[in-house]
Design goal:
Number of strands: 11
Number of helices: 8
Low-confidence stretches: 300-304
Oligomer: single chain
CATH architecture of the largest domain: 2-Layer Sandwich
CATH class of the largest domain: Alpha Beta
Helix content: 25-40%
Number of domains: 2
């Protein structure tokens, strides 16, 4: 059975009713299973993870993302996470019996349809990128939503699909195809965000740190603690244990410790080989956060 995963990120982390409305229409689309959804008020962001047949996932993504555009207004949005739009990023991930080339084809079809129907500029990234410079999200998010007004009109920033104009309500959307990514955050026993930023610089690939690691340091004002927020773009080369140990070592050098870690969304079973959740001080973890747990019993003919 072909199974595709989609993990759209929406720029809403404070209104639970908005997220629930998006998830509700996604479930009603049929043929998909929602694995996880969560929101964070400091990042002002929500993440939804779902799987299904390629056709069902593409249909569900369109339904959910269109509902998000109806409910989210970027003109009122402020948060610590970099973002370009209400529907900020829509990645498609091949899980079983699918090639990356098939995921890319779906990303391109979805992105062009979404852009045309909703008047939203779309940029393709990851394996779906049409320009080498647009492969990574950090590059696409330079300057964030606030910079889009001017950036979208620059020749080097012409959207891959949709209008070449600034949409103040919706911003722009990145649509891509990629390998499974692990969104992993580590909270520190301090509210000094400078320490979190120093740790992020020391471990992220772009600063000469660990391969396949994107990282930033932020303050979680709601809890008054500093966080190292990370994406592991290839856990096969840089494992969760490796990045946890690197953060712990650097934190120790700076006189602080790790309070806890958290997973956003789901992860492949192989990412936990030889690792217990307590080894990572991982909070709120259960077997349902493992993708394969759901794929083995997925019924793509009906709403889950």
């Amino acid at each position: 059975m072909k199974i595709l995963e989609c993990v759209p990120n929406f720029s809403e982390g404070r209104n639970r009713q908005t997220l629930e409305a998006i998830v509700t229409v996604l479930k009603r689309a049929g043929g998909v299973k929602v694995l996880d959804y969560s929101m964070d008020e400091d990042h002002h962001r929500s993440v939804v993870t779902f799987v299904g047949s390629p056709e069902a996932v593409e249909r569900g993504a369109a339904t959910a993302c269109e509902r998000a555009l109806e409910l989210i207004d970027m003109r009122d949005h402020r948060g610590v996470h970099p973002r370009n739009g209400a529907v900020d990023v829509v990645p498609f991930i091949p899980i079983t019996e699918m090639t990356m080339a098939e995921a890319v084809q779906i990303a391109h079809r979805f992105g062009r349809s979404f852009a045309e129907k909703n008047g939203v500029p779309v940029y393709f990234y990851g394996a779906a990128a049409l320009h080498p410079s647009r492969k990574t999200l950090p590059f696409l998010r330079k300057g964030g939503y606030e910079a889009l007004r001017d950036k979208v009109h620059a020749p080097s920033w012409t959207p891959d699909a949709g209008p070449t104009l600034f949409n103040p309500r919706s911003g722009a959307t990145a649509v891509g195809a990629r390998l499974p990514l692990i969104a992993f955050n580590i909270n520190l026993t301090t509210n000094d965000v400078k320490i979190a930023r120093k740790i992020a610089v020391s471990i992220r690939q772009s600063s000469g740190g660990l391969k396949h690691i994107q990282a930033m340091g932020v303050l979680l004002a709601s809890r008054d603690i500093a966080q190292v927020s990370m994406n592991l773009t290839d856990y096969r080369e840089t494992s969760l244990r490796t990045v946890f140990n690197a953060v712990q070592d650097k934190a120790g050098e700076l006189g602080v410790d790790i309070l806890e870690s958290e997973l956003i969304g789901c992860l492949p079973e192989a990412a936990l080989d030889g690792i217990k959740p307590e080894d990572l001080k991982l909070c709120d973890f259960c077997g349902d956060r493992i993708i394969e747990t759901h794929c083995s019993r997925l019924d793509t003919s009906a709403d889950q």
